[in-house]
Amino acid sequence: MSKRAVLEVIALDVEDAVAAEAGGADRLELVTDMAADGLTPPVAAFARIRAAVDLPLRVMLRLSEGFAAGAASDVDRLVHLTRELRSAGAEEFVLGFLDADGGVDLAAVERIVAELDGCRWTFHRALDHAADRDALRKQLDGLPGLDTYLTAGSAAGVDTGLPTLRTEASRHGEPGYEQQLLVGGGLHLAHVPPLRSAGIDAFHIGSAARPTGWTGPVSATAVGEWRRVVDGG
Prior knowledge:
Layout: E1 6-11, H1 14-23, E2 27-30, H2 43-52, E3 57-60, H3 72-87, E4 92-95, H4 106-116, E5 120-123, H5 133-140, E6 146-151, H6 158-170, E7 180-183, H7 192-197, E8 202-205, H8 220-230
Parallel strand pairs: 1-2, 1-8, 2-3, 3-4, 4-5, 5-6, 6-7
Helix pairs in contact: 1-8, 3-4
C-alpha cells in the first residue's frame, strides 16, 4: 500500500488553519496578502496559528509580488524577518527568487537559507517561471533543507504542465530531482488521479479550499473532499 499523500493548504489566519486541520490537511502554508500572490505573514500571525493547530507550518518568505528578491536592503529585511520567525518557533519555510534573466538568484537564496540553519523548505512556483527548470534544479542541488518543489509544471497551470510533471516525477532520485514534487497552481480534483498514477504524492491548494474564494475562509468540508480524493477515495 502506498504511503499517505501530503495535502498542504494555504492559511491566512487562525480560522483557516483550524478548518484546514479539521478537514484533514497534513501541512499549512502560511502567507498574507493573496492579492500579491502570498507574502510573508506577520510574526504575530504565525504565533497565533502555531498556538491554534498541531500541523507543520511552512512560512512564506517573500516581501513583494513576483519572483525577484529585490534590492540588497530588501534581502536584509527578509533576513531580519526570517530571524524573527525562527525565534518565534518557525521551523519550515517557502521561498524562491529569480534574476532578471529567469535564472535562479542563487546569492539571495543562499543568504536566506543560511539563516534557516538546516530547516526544511520548499522552493515555490518561481520554478515554473524559470528560463531553464533543469538548470535551476541542478544549481540548487545540495542546499541544506531543500526537500520540496511547489510546481504546476508550467507558468500557465497544471493543465498545461501535466507532461512536465510526469517527466519530472519519473526522474525522482536523479541529481537535482531528489526533492518531493508538491503540485499546485490551477490544480483541480480531476488532476489528482493521473498525478497519483504518475507517482506524485503531494498536493497544494489555496482557493480550492475556499468555496467563496479568497474573500472567504477555508472550508473544512472542502478540504475533506480533497483529502478523500488525494487518498484515492
